[in-house]
Amino acid sequence: MFAYRKKKLLENASKINCKNIISLQPENIFYLTGFWGEGVILMNHNTTKLFTPTLEYFRASEDSKECEIIKIEKRGSEGTLLSLISELDNNSFYCIDNANYNLINHLKEKTGNNKIIVNEDPFFKTRSIKDEIEIKDIKQAANIIDKLYNICLEEIKEGVSERQLQATLVYETFKNGGGFPAYKSTLNPFIIASGPNSALPHASVSNRKFESGDFIVVDLTLRVNGYVADATRTFGLKTIKPYLKKVYEIVKEAQRLGLNKCGNEIKIGEVDKTCRQYISENGFTNEFNHSTGHGIGLEVHEPPWIRPNNEERFMDNMTITIEPGVYLESRFGVRIEDSIMIDSKNSRKGILNFNKFEKDLIII
Fold it and tell me: Does this chain's domain 2-127 share its CATH topology with 132-353?
């Protein structure tokens, strides 16, 4: 498994004239060795070396596979720098996934090597095509999300707060074997947004209590063995006005059209166009204010990006989300999202939808 991943990464790096890889990002280190933690990888066709500080050394020894583990005596950029200097060949190009300005400059200054290329594209291009183990973990994460939506049906009631629902879902996530990504842009693991808060695509969880007439957007993202699934459902509580139901049906149909458009060799921008055009034709041109989706894997948001004018084409075993939405400021919002895989070989529809939970409007 790791040998194949390394081979594909080196093939993609060779397209920018690099025969060597330097990786400091935990996601890429995990992808190449099975170890998620502090460290740096130096890799070429002959060897893979994982440098890690003393406090991580024994865990790295247990978790990592198919690599040589070298103990770093000093932590941080200084330790990384000292470890790499003696290993670099001034006649070779190195592709590095970290844009730390000081580290890159120090590497160049200390070694006289101007052949260090900062470029994450080979890493993302390689990771965008999932193998069987990755697919299994993403599918399991999506299965847990579906279970959490069934719990929402029991827990969403008048007087229950967004924060209370989040607490229950966090507990159930761990209980079912899931974990959480760490977002820099939010303090919450989930988005639970009710009433006017649902008009904010990235609403912060609050103490607002659910009321009759609310739309409640529940956006759940979690990990299994490092791999992410991401899905959203919008629930209604008790008495829902006909206009809200109408908007919900527009979003649901837009998402259906987007899913049906996905497939191997389809231009990614066409999927965004399909969802956006339908929503616009129904009167909400400016109320769909984010991209139609994104890649999922070791990160919540990673290529490919399902957004306007993306000329890249889907490939089998890419895993993505499709998540159109409509947001009326200070009133309400609707979003429906599934995690899917492009799968022309095994699926008649050209995709495998990991999320099975109902998308018809559920009024609790």
Answer: no
